[in-house]
Amino acid sequence: MLTITLLGTAATMPLPDRALSAAFAACGGHGLLWDCGEGTQAAAHRAGVNLMRADAICLTHYHGDHIFGLPGLLQTLGAQGRTRPLALLGPEGLSDIWAAVRALTGPLPYPVKPQVLMPGQPLALDALSEGWPAGARLVPFATKHRVKSLGYRLELPRAGKFSPEQARALGVPVQQWKLLQKGQSVAVEGRTVQPVQVLGAPRRGLSVVFSGDTAPCPGLLQAAQDADLLLCDATYALPEQEAQARQWGHSTFGQSAALAAQAGAKRLWLTHYSPMITDPEEYAEQAQGIFPAAECGFDGKSITLQYEEVQP
Amino acid sequence: MLTITLLGTAATMPLPDRALSAAFAACGGHGLLWDCGEGTQAAAHRAGVNLMRADAICLTHYHGDHIFGLPGLLQTLGAQGRTRPLALLGPEGLSDIWAAVRALTGPLPYPVKPQVLMPGQPLALDALSEGWPAGARLVPFATKHRVKSLGYRLELPRAGKFSPEQARALGVPVQQWKLLQKGQSVAVEGRTVQPVQVLGAPRRGLSVVFSGDTAPCPGLLQAAQDADLLLCDATYALPEQEAQARQWGHSTFGQSAALAAQAGAKRLWLTHYSPMITDPEEYAEQAQGIFPAAECGFDGKSITLQYEEVQP
């Protein structure tokens, strides 16, 4: 079970009802914050999202509209009593940004651990915190913006169905079932029992993709394959703005929709709207005409994704 | 004529309807921004305040809740086409803060001119921009917080009433009247005419005080003398919180009111509320019982102060 909440859907500058770029992925008591534009804290408060649960802040790039909420959020987490570490993830260039942010915040009562991520090198989330399901991972991928930038795919795999009957037949004590369910083998009376002996075929997990700022590109297309939800750059509304979008390293509503369709994503939420777009809903058809499951994102829009229950 | 707008009235952390510390003073097409907490841009947008008019940003001190809106605002002013210089004023320590902010914003399309101000050394505002009335000045004063901090008194003096009859009698051509009105002497047919010859006694001007974060202190008491409006630290609501207020370098509603009364201020607006204060109006009596002209500030609260018209 994974709850995704858009916190800020504005590009460039905040508007009264549109904070700058940020989204939160919550899984149990844990979570990831994607980007942290100015206004992220207030938006989270408004949306009922508790950012204390964040294990990591995952930055897509270092343009101001994606990072200027960081100093304030880091201080607030400290004021709220955080002592456990917070990972600060992002593409190359992170150390300079972190140095400037740290100069503004001063010392914090918890460790911030900056870590540069490389496209295609996944991060196991149970390395950040034990609360994540086994195998959960964050896969950074290269996007196409004006600066070095990443998008992120969050994957929660789901093991096959556990068979208590099989486990009992193999003599595995109940206390060890959890290890097998987590994919670890166990020793039983001198024998080794493998997970595959007690688990059915792996089931469909959950995956969500946060594009960051990008023009349509192979990295995003691949990352969005079969995704349950794609949060995608939709800076420009109209097809006639494609040249402008390309120039600035962004996408139009239609381009995002076409990519979601081609990738076989289940849902698409448009975000990162230019301040020129007063009401994104006016242009929803630009995306829905191409990909009917497209929706306009807005600050506070949220969905809880459940594992599919396949009927036998 | 001077319009004061509270942009953010929160202390420590932003709340959904309360941005962090900031206030704008507008005079004609010009203005000063006092402090710049996170959310200042969006609050200004909401309140209809155009921050492009700012000639200076006047920081009271460098705690995050007073400065973390800076990087975003500076970038937005650039995106909106600013090319004219912006003064960045504050107490000692400004260069480190400016270095960190600049590292986050990158190059801006207009010059930012940091300038450290010392208590008691006024800044002539016509040095920042020609739009300010003659003699307008910003007077920084020492406040009592946990770090080096300033408050600001903005003064718009008002010359005596100009007498066209006197000017005509002295043979001053109409084109030169403006110079006399601005306090400059003019040469007329070999004679020098002084402003005092054509102006009545100086009239009451306008003054507004922004306390920043402070416990009651002599600097603030002096600055608030006869002020038309005092925007004052009111972090804590209740008298029993005075020890806490003192410890953290803040004031209670009642302390701010007592100071306003003692200083003979005309109006007091409370601001910089602790997040523990859900609705400041519930505690208004704590201030109004001591100083009836006290009002609770809120984001977007605004007043236009006019010069007094004294009836002859």
UniProtKB/TrEMBL annotation, chains A, B:
Binding site for Zn(2+) 2: D65, H66, D213, H272
GO terms of molecular function: 3'-tRNA processing endoribonuclease activity
Membrane-spanning parts: none
Record key words, sorted: Endonuclease, Hydrolase, Metal-binding, Nuclease, tRNA processing, Zinc
Annotated residues for binding of Zn(2+) 1: H61, H63, H145, D213
Residue ranges constituting the Metallo-beta-lactamase domain according to the UniProt record: 28-106, 203-273
Protein name per its UniProtKB record: Ribonuclease Z
Organism the protein comes from: Faecalibacterium wellingii
